[in-house]
């Protein structure tokens, strides 16, 4: 009569690696560690080079836009129709129900 059936899993009852799995993974252990360290070195090198390159830039070639001009009376009248009155006084950009940015009214002909 046959004994208990052999386990077909590479893990034991406590979900630890079995001897067969350890033997199968042993040849790849060093290769995987070396590959991981090499990849970590390349990624770290690119990161450090990028931080160094950006740190040396003084951004003189970037054009900064002028400050926005104050709104005219017509714009304020259009805003008062689409915003809550107290929100216009506070300079809020939310609609009367407080649901996010309100859309500007179409220009009147």
What do these coordinates show?
The chain is an all-alpha fold and 109 residues long. It is 50% helix and 0% strand. It contains three helices and no strands. The mean pLDDT is 77.
Structural class: mainly alpha
Helix fraction by DSSP (H/I, runs of at least 4): 40-55%
Low-confidence regions: none
If you average the pLDDT, what whole number results?
A: 77
Computed over alpha carbons, the radius of gyration is 34 Å
- Per DSSP, what share of the residues sits in E-state strands of 2 or more residues? under 5%
Principal-axes geometry comes out as: elongated
Q: In total, how many beta strands?
A: 0
Distance between the termini: 99 Å
> Assembly type of the shown chains?
single chain
- The arrangement of helices and strands along the chain is HHH
* Helix count from the secondary structure assignment: 3
Largest sheet descriptor? none
Function: Required for assembly of cytochrome c oxidase (complex IV).
Pfam families: Coa3_cc
Subunit structure: Component of 250-400 kDa complexes called cytochrome oxidase assembly intermediates or COA complexes.
Keywords: Membrane, Mitochondrion, Mitochondrion inner membrane, Transmembrane, Transmembrane helix
């Amino acid at each position: 009569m046959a004994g208990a059936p052999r386990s077909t899993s590479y893990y034991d009852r406590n979900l630890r690696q079995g001897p067969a799995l350890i033997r199968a993974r042993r040849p790849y252990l060093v290769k995987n560690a070396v590959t991981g360290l090499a990849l970590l070195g390349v990624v770290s090198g690119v990161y450090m080079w990028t931080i160094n390159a950006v740190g040396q830039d003084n951004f003189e070639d970037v054009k900064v836009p002028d400050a926005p001009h104050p709104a005219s009376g017509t714009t304020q009248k259009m805003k008062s129709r689409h915003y809550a009155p107290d929100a216009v006084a506070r300079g809020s950009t939310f609609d009367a129900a407080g649901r996010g940015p309100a859309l500007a009214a179409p220009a009147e002909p």
